[in-house]
Amino acid sequence: MHTVDAIARIMKAEGIEYLSCFPTTPLIEAAAAAGIRPIICRQERVGVGIADGFSRVKNGRPPGVFAMQYGPGAENAFPGVATAYSDSTPLLLLPLGHTRQQDRVLPLFSSLRTYESVTKSVEQMNTEERVVDVMRRAFASLRNGRGGPVMVEIPADLTNATVDSSIVDNYRPVPTVLSQADPEDVEKAAQALLSADRPLIVAGAGVLYAEGTQELVELAEFLQVPVMTTMEGKSAISELHPLALGSGSGVMSDPVLEFLRNADVVLVIGSSMTPHSMVTPIPPGKVVIHSTNDPVDIGKGSSPDHALLGDSRLVLKQLSDSVRDLNGPSPRSSDEGPATRIESIRAAWHTRWMSKLAADAVPINPYRVIWELMKTVPASEAIVTHDAGSPRFQMMPFYRSDGPRTYLGWGKSHQLGTGLGLVIGAKLAAPEKVCINFMGDAAFGMTGLDFETAVRSDLPIITVVLNNGTMAVETSEMELSHRLHGTRDLGGNYADIGKSLGGWSERVTEPGDISGAFTRARRATDQGSAALLEFITGEETEYSNRRPFG
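User: That's the sequence. What structure does it adopt?
Assistant: Structure tokens below.
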């Protein structure tokens, strides 16, 4: 067999069923022959996003895979890989490389050199005899420790080299190895939680990847501790749970604001605590317990009072066992818990925002679109994601997810247009779900033609385009240039584009039509059509509690 055939067989052995890709690479044919379905994107950046969204929904079991040609293919894929790296998403990248004779000859583009800064590991398969070793190391890196993109470059002149099939026949899938925290450190952290007057849990994406939602809920209910999530951790706990506060990113709900502001002990689990504008910082003066599976994260932004190194699910189980040992087996009474206070704060917050959430204004207020979606499509039946800019700020505080991976929060890289690839990958991973992405008109301009990928690939997603005809986030940044030259203005009829690309589409201009439009779009996806809903919205620039802690 050829090298690409060996790679495809190894991927199949590791549970890979889909290959997101763009020609030209012989790996596409090899994958098809091995029983792996190729998904051809329109643009490499979106193709990486498809693999990324698939990985998130599957929690890397198995990871998404993207293959591309050398030169322009590898060049175009970079933004998608940077996004996956910033969010620690495990995915396998398989670019062709120039021939070994041309390897790293300037000015030829080198994936090895260029991608080193946005991958967990990079390796070149420089001889056919190393195919098993190189692929085993790649999957070992994908399955263990902190997530992130892993790249294997395949020189073009190596693809059709002959590999002894017996070598591949003996390949065995790589095991996943998990670790627990030091028991003494766990006991100290448990004592801190039990002694706290106002404890708080902050759950990150690590809880999702560890599939630790049940353990998170058990600890929270036993101690009657409220739970907020990070942007990437959103849905780690059902946001319909009485102890769920919502998510914190650059914006947040009132319950998140109040409980984070007043907490005395904060358990941050499954989060790197990377200082970033899209990460809600822990205000000073609190006892911080930080749990992560990567020692690099400990003390990265600030020094925690307690540090627990290990898999989030296992650490949560350790903490639950420890608090029971210290406090006895009976959980704290819910009568003494914060659930009533959470609901009271949320109700007052909703009341204050109802003028936007239920607005009858024309153009439509984007908050009304989100509100109607929540009433029309049960959150437990959906996977929802946002795009960068206004959709992220508008959705993160108000949309309430209902269970693990019913929402894909992302954004440390926050590139416009990312959400479309993510939602296509989500539909690939969970075809039974109603998969919806919210994007602005600027984001559609970046990647919108890949809506046709969903149409062509029989992946019936719902794309929501919030069309306000402008770049609202830049209102204060481009005041003079806009007044003189209209620099923020955008144009387009996106419903027409969706229809011309082969999908079902509808343009909505009246608030009273929003719920019906979502119902019709869902019916279209149930019948196998990708759907595009274009809502003509106003220029909304107010956000909930934007960066109150700096």
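Residues 3-169 form a domain with the Rossmann fold fold (CATH 3.40.50.970).
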